[in-house]
């Protein structure tokens, strides 16, 4: 411990970014799924800043009840306020809290990093929504009086209650439109749904761009899969497609590398080579706009099967690429990122594959 840290400090030398901290995270028995996601989120700078700000504001409020949000904020604050530039931190309280909140993560078995990320973001949103409701209620009554129970009154002045947009939403939330066109009357039915990440089906020797294209390609609903058209009042053949209506500021892409194979009766890991570019253009899927994204973190699954293996992460910070493997942190060349694309052959000795990709929007051009 520590040795890897000082090596990193030497490697960065004068270029060590002012105020930045690079800390490995201790593993508490197969908690690499958690560590790899935490590093990606820590280096998601808008998210980190909001979380640190939340923590700073909340500390002055007195008695913050411990929850996953306070544990995460506490951990990030602990990392960012370290005197040393590098080292190792034990995310003990956070991991304990995760296990307490969700029995799925209680065992020492290998867990899915994407499931964990999903659980974490939704949990943070739930906590922020509850807090917002609580402050609304207490501000409607005397400020000194704590509300123990009672219904949460919707605003009395007739304003429709909009769903709360938290800073978690502001970073990660995008909107998809699911369009279905009845082939008889040509009526288009559109249904919006929000997302925190996109789960993409993958193919051998493909790229993120082609996976995104497949994701929003037109699908025909026919035979036993017909669509009930409200206008025709009957089942009709239809065309369906998904479009990204509002791209998120942080685009998280989950590659579906774990596939259930019916003949085998179990999940199999797809080691397919899927190229993920450092700069991604989201053009074909968005109406009339070209959004540019830059890759800043990759959660990598190491191993050949779905039930065992290891997770590490690659992170870009101040134009340097770093490799986080639990306690250890190393600097890597940008060109190393492409060794995590996957394998063009089915059996390969390289089992380190990009699994969750984190892109940040770098301003839109039309
Ligand atoms: Zn119709």
TrEMBL record:
Residues 23-362 form the USP domain. It comes from the Eukaryota. Its EC number is 3.4.19.12. GO terms for biological process: protein deubiquitination; proteolysis. Its main location: nucleus. InterPro entries: Papain-like_cys_pep_sf, Peptidase_C19, Peptidase_C19_UCH, USP, USP_CS. Residues 135-157 are annotated as: Disordered. Residues 135-144 have a biased composition (Polar residues). GO terms for cellular component: cytosol; nucleus. Keywords: Hydrolase, Lipoprotein, Myristate, Nucleus, Protease, Ubl conjugation pathway. It catalyses: Thiol-dependent hydrolysis of ester, thioester, amide, peptide and isopeptide bonds formed by the C-terminal Gly of ubiquitin (a 76-residue protein attached to proteins as an intracellular targeting signal). SUPFAM superfamilies: Cysteine proteinases. One of its GO terms (molecular function) is cysteine-type deubiquitinase activity. Recognizes and hydrolyzes the peptide bond at the C-terminal Gly of ubiquitin. Involved in the processing of poly-ubiquitin precursors as well as that of ubiquitinated proteins. Required for the correct development of pollen. This is ubiquitinyl hydrolase 1. It comes from Asparagus officinalis (Garden asparagus).
